[in-house]
Amino acid sequence: MSAIGKIVATRLKSSGLIRSQALIAGKWTEAYNASTRDVISRCRMSTKAESVAMKLKSSGLFRSQAVIAGKLTEAYGGHTRAVVSRCRMSTKAENVATRLNSSGLLRSQGLIAGKWTEAYDGKVIEVTNPATGDVVANVPCMGGRETNDAISAAYETFSSWSKTTAAERSKCLRKWYDLLIAHKEELGQLITLEQGKPLKEAIGEVAYGASFIEYFSEEAKRVYGEIIPTPLSDRRLFVLKQPVGVVGVITPWNFPLAMITRKVGPALASGCTVVIKPSELTPLTALAAAELSIQAGIPPGVVNVVMGNAKEIGDALLASTQVRKITFTGSTAVGKKLMAGSANTVKRLSLELGGNAPCIVFDDADLDVAVKGAEKEFKMDAELKYLREELTLLCKTSEEKTSPYSSRDRAKLGTKFRNSGQTCVCANRILVQEGIYDKFASAFSNAVQKLQVGDGFVDGVAQGPLINEAAVQKVEKFVQDAISKGAKVLLGGRRHHLGMTFYEPTVMADINNEMLISREEIFGPVAPLLPFKTEEDAIRLANDTNAGLAAYLFTTNIQRSWRVSEALEYGIVGVNEGLVSTEVAPFGGFKQSGIGREGSKYGMDEYVEVKYVCLGNMHG
């Protein structure tokens, strides 16, 4: 564009006369299918030029790499691929992306055997900011060949890493933790950029994710064996714990850092090597964490990262006899496929799958305890202050001094609406005892109404966008199903006026257990309220699901807290507490919510084999 053209365009833009959305019912509107934004030349390509570009692209003549020694080549640093917001990224987001790019943490290549690597066929996928639709970076669309090379690198490195002393592995992990904390601001910004959650919440995730690396750096020195008293005097019996081997790590988009560190921490501490497959929606955080692992002195080949074609990568991990274990966080449907696919090579599995968390509010509950308990859980040190601040932000309402239910409501906000409801332990169903149901519904709706929705980089925002258009459509489907079966929308229930994938914080009443919203995981900012009469009714409703990950109950009756906790068929139960996850406690579910545990000393057991050794003829 010429200089004069730029001046004119700038003036028009500031005047509000340049519009880039359709007008429907008086609202400026994006295409409902967000993929339509991914067109060639987002800004100013003519129809004819677009047609030419499409033909060139399909012909294979449309290239965006240099040629060196006959090979199409990116800049060796890979940073030029982190094309920051080609057309319309907000100034703040663009500044963040630019700073990340210059810091060296905005990586856009896979990591195989310690080398930053492109897809062998040159294919790429776009990583977008869900709040704006802007392209943040292009990353390689890798497949089976790259994954097999990553597996080979991990397998070859395993022999040396597994023999490294526990003390040395501990030092490497501790250094990695120190670097994660030192770069918590940048990593938090990167999470917000590619995943959308509010910045303070994202920085809180970095602190939470780093805590697993710190914890397992210490546990690395405590992988103890055992001496068994022998039944025969000429024998000596002992037990060794040895690393499993190469681990395939498959992680989701909702916690781009923490789901990796919770798995990779114990794997590396026990002496395993890993091939990480992050979500193609949020690979940049994984790559940044891998860059810091290199800086921490973790040897090449111990940590490998591939992303792109999920099916090809998954098939390669499942087929390889060199991969001894798969650890996965994601949907129950995919978890079942991984179980079936692991049968041929009899791999060990850790699966953290879907949830359908009930949150039971008894009429004797005093949830001031929940707010105070959350502050205690998150430790009040500098690294975790952001979590307290975020909780405080969510808890402040004008109801605080006037409503007897305000503390209940405030505690639910953090349980239900953090990460826009996109966590497997979010309260999926809020069961409220009949005696307080109406007052609770009213006060809770008033509190939720005050949540600020917007771009995660904007101060004061408590809820960001959903991850993509498919996520919004799923929420819409669940809400409409509930309405068609008699539910009432007390608040929200529709897309937010901001457009894109923003959805209004929603509260629904008159929910029953036959609605989709009760039967399946919502993964969105929707709080369904279900009434119940008795303790027995609450337990029956809570357990009436195939999921069994997390459950919550609020009561001041200590006997009831024990009875209900023991009766709930869930791996995690929060009593008078809605934010329970911590590195020192086991995380995992019952029933179809998965197998195995993450975090705590039990998390180490998932990555070691138990070997029994018998020494005979010891009298000679």
TrEMBL record:
<dbReference type="InterPro" id="IPR016161">
    <property type="entry name" value="Ald_DH/histidinol_DH"/>
</dbReference>
<dbReference type="GO" id="GO:0004777">
    <property type="term" value="F:succinate-semialdehyde dehydrogenase (NAD+) activity"/>
</dbReference>
<dbReference type="Pfam" id="PF00171">
    <property type="entry name" value="Aldedh"/>
</dbReference>
<feature type="domain" description="Aldehyde dehydrogenase">
    <location>
        <begin position="415"/>
        <end position="613"/>
    </location>
</feature>
<dbReference type="InterPro" id="IPR016162">
    <property type="entry name" value="Ald_DH_N"/>
</dbReference>
<dbReference type="GO" id="GO:0009450">
    <property type="term" value="P:gamma-aminobutyric acid catabolic process"/>
</dbReference>
<dbReference type="InterPro" id="IPR016163">
    <property type="entry name" value="Ald_DH_C"/>
</dbReference>
<keyword id="KW-0560">Oxidoreductase</keyword>
<comment type="similarity">
    <text>Belongs to the aldehyde dehydrogenase family.</text>
</comment>
<feature type="active site">
    <location>
        <position position="352"/>
    </location>
</feature>
<dbReference type="InterPro" id="IPR016160">
    <property type="entry name" value="Ald_DH_CS_CYS"/>
</dbReference>
<dbReference type="InterPro" id="IPR029510">
    <property type="entry name" value="Ald_DH_CS_GLU"/>
</dbReference>
<comment type="pathway">
    <text>Amino-acid degradation; 4-aminobutanoate degradation.</text>
</comment>
<feature type="domain" description="Aldehyde dehydrogenase">
    <location>
        <begin position="116"/>
        <end position="376"/>
    </location>
</feature>
<dbReference type="InterPro" id="IPR050740">
    <property type="entry name" value="Aldehyde_DH_Superfamily"/>
</dbReference>
<protein>
    <recommendedName>
        <fullName>Succinate-semialdehyde dehydrogenase, mitochondrial</fullName>
        <ecNumber>1.2.1.24</ecNumber>
    </recommendedName>
</protein>
<dbReference type="InterPro" id="IPR015590">
    <property type="entry name" value="Aldehyde_DH_dom"/>
</dbReference>
